Amino acid sequence: MTTTAAAEHVDLIGGRRPIAAQIGVYAFVIVPFVALVAAVPAAWGWGLTWVDVGLTVVFYTVTCLGATVGFHRYFTHRAFKAKRGLRIGLAIAGSLAVQGPILHWVADHRRHHAFADQEGDPHSPWLFGTSPAALARGFWHAHLGWILDRDLTNQHRFAPDLLADPAIRRVHRQFGLWTLVTLAAPAVLGGLITWSWWGALTAFFWAGLVRVTLLHHVTWSVNSVCHLIGERPFAARDRSANVWPLALLSMGESWHNLHHADPTSARHGVKRGQIDASARLIWIFEKFGWAYDVRWPTPERLSRITNV
């Protein structure tokens, strides 16, 4: 590594994750995944009720939109402006997705865009070469491996605006609390709805653990799959692509090529039939007056980035 490259690497990294926090990362990768594996036999004739299904759908939708609309389109890319109540609500809703504290999340993602599919990108599948073995290693790294790295992206470089906001720093510090809430709330509701401890347990399993790991892997697939395969109708400087089968579960995030071609756009699915639930929610926020100065795509904007 040259002196310049070494200096750049140091500037990208803002420290290392403490051992206790690193153990927590492993726990919240492994435990929900084990629950997802166990879900297959559990759903076969017992252990899954319509209450579990309903709670899972509700909590998945709320937490996924918290990450996509809140952490991603609002906090990372400033695709719109939000009044203070909505701003704090989005920070909390994104934290409930259990994808890491807000300052870490935003810093990582802004760094990803600054170095997309190049050296310095925290989760590009192309960092190790283009041979089948290199791409297999790259897929693992982009999908999950990078999360297990103890190095933390420099927040002072990539998220100074959020560091300057005391309310956002508070939500960041409360990540453990919001993790507890996102796992306990389904159990409490399941127990109250069914008026049974068994209902609480199955709701915790499905709407808590299984929901978290499903959302994890959908989000991680945008990092991995959507930089390997798919359609590229827009001109981006990286290998981002649209992968339509992920569109519903990712709330529109898998229209990834447009996003990298125009990162501040509030809508990612801009072509006919491209469902983008996150953009629809932003539209609702705008209608209620909670969001404003929304950066909607325009024909002129799209014409500048469309591949000929």
UniProtKB/TrEMBL annotation:
It is a multi-pass membrane protein. It is found in: Membrane. Its main location: membrane. Keywords: Fatty acid metabolism, Iron, Lipid metabolism, Membrane, Oxidoreductase, Transmembrane, Transmembrane helix. It comes from the Bacteria. The keyword Transmembrane applies. It holds the Pfam family FA_desaturase. Residues 49-265 form the Fatty acid desaturase domain. The chain crosses the membrane at residues 23-47, 53-74, 175-198. Belongs to the fatty acid desaturase type 2 family. This is Stearoyl-CoA desaturase. It comes from Asanoa iriomotensis. The lineage of its organism: Bacteria, Bacillati, Actinomycetota, Actinomycetes, Micromonosporales.
